[in-house]
């Protein structure tokens, strides 16, 4: 069975959705590691409750990205991780991980990329008064939300929308689409994009 690691910085509702999909046997994988760059993030509590091993670090304790990414890599190798799943991991992936896991790192972003990359995509969509936004799942490259797109789904916005109402719709979509895309990627024949 293919093994995944989830990287997350915050609440971890997507992490939980992936865990739940595994429990329901809709997603056939083993989540062997949670990586978090935010000691104290709620996602770490979730992982502990699910008895999933964690590697938690604070970037400020390392001189540069390559140093903590080498640590992460050790944990990924020790846990024989096949695919890295970013789920609200608010940090750019560096060369160390990109080279070691070429074509095997995916991300979910709360907008229809290339619209609204980077931080606060929902706030950016609100401000732009767009009538549609959505979510994107894509391969990760060295850029900010720039890798090849795997899947997108749109939602329509009314003029009464608030940050909370958009977030609720976006997250419901994310929780449904991400596990099914992971399942597809792990089980298709030509296993990964290169
Ligand atoms: C998700 O909505 C995800 O799309 C977004 O962070 C949220 C994490 O929520 N990611 C980004 O904005 C990446 N640029 P969660 O911690 O509840 O899963």
TrEMBL record:
<feature type="binding site">
    <location>
        <begin position="12"/>
        <end position="14"/>
    </location>
    <ligand>
        <name>N(1)-(5-phospho-beta-D-ribosyl)glycinamide</name>
    </ligand>
</feature>
<feature type="site" description="Raises pKa of active site His">
    <location>
        <position position="145"/>
    </location>
</feature>
<feature type="binding site">
    <location>
        <position position="107"/>
    </location>
    <ligand>
        <name>(6R)-10-formyltetrahydrofolate</name>
    </ligand>
</feature>
<feature type="active site" description="Proton donor">
    <location>
        <position position="109"/>
    </location>
</feature>
<feature type="binding site">
    <location>
        <begin position="90"/>
        <end position="93"/>
    </location>
    <ligand>
        <name>(6R)-10-formyltetrahydrofolate</name>
    </ligand>
</feature>
<comment type="similarity">
    <text>Belongs to the GART family.</text>
</comment>
<dbReference type="InterPro" id="IPR001555">
    <property type="entry name" value="GART_AS"/>
</dbReference>
<dbReference type="InterPro" id="IPR004607">
    <property type="entry name" value="GART"/>
</dbReference>
<feature type="binding site">
    <location>
        <position position="65"/>
    </location>
    <ligand>
        <name>(6R)-10-formyltetrahydrofolate</name>
    </ligand>
</feature>
<dbReference type="InterPro" id="IPR036477">
    <property type="entry name" value="Formyl_transf_N_sf"/>
</dbReference>
<protein>
    <recommendedName>
        <fullName>Phosphoribosylglycinamide formyltransferase</fullName>
        <ecNumber>2.1.2.2</ecNumber>
    </recommendedName>
</protein>
<dbReference type="Pfam" id="PF00551">
    <property type="entry name" value="Formyl_trans_N"/>
</dbReference>
<comment type="function">
    <text>Catalyzes the transfer of a formyl group from 10-formyltetrahydrofolate to 5-phospho-ribosyl-glycinamide (GAR), producing 5-phospho-ribosyl-N-formylglycinamide (FGAR) and tetrahydrofolate.</text>
</comment>
<feature type="domain" description="Formyl transferase N-terminal">
    <location>
        <begin position="2"/>
        <end position="182"/>
    </location>
</feature>
<dbReference type="InterPro" id="IPR002376">
    <property type="entry name" value="Formyl_transf_N"/>
</dbReference>
<keyword id="KW-0658">Purine biosynthesis</keyword>
<keyword id="KW-0808">Transferase</keyword>
<comment type="pathway">
    <text>Purine metabolism; IMP biosynthesis via de novo pathway; N(2)-formyl-N(1)-(5-phospho-D-ribosyl)glycinamide from N(1)-(5-phospho-D-ribosyl)glycinamide (10-formyl THF route): step 1/1.</text>
</comment>
<dbReference type="GO" id="GO:0004644">
    <property type="term" value="F:phosphoribosylglycinamide formyltransferase activity"/>
</dbReference>
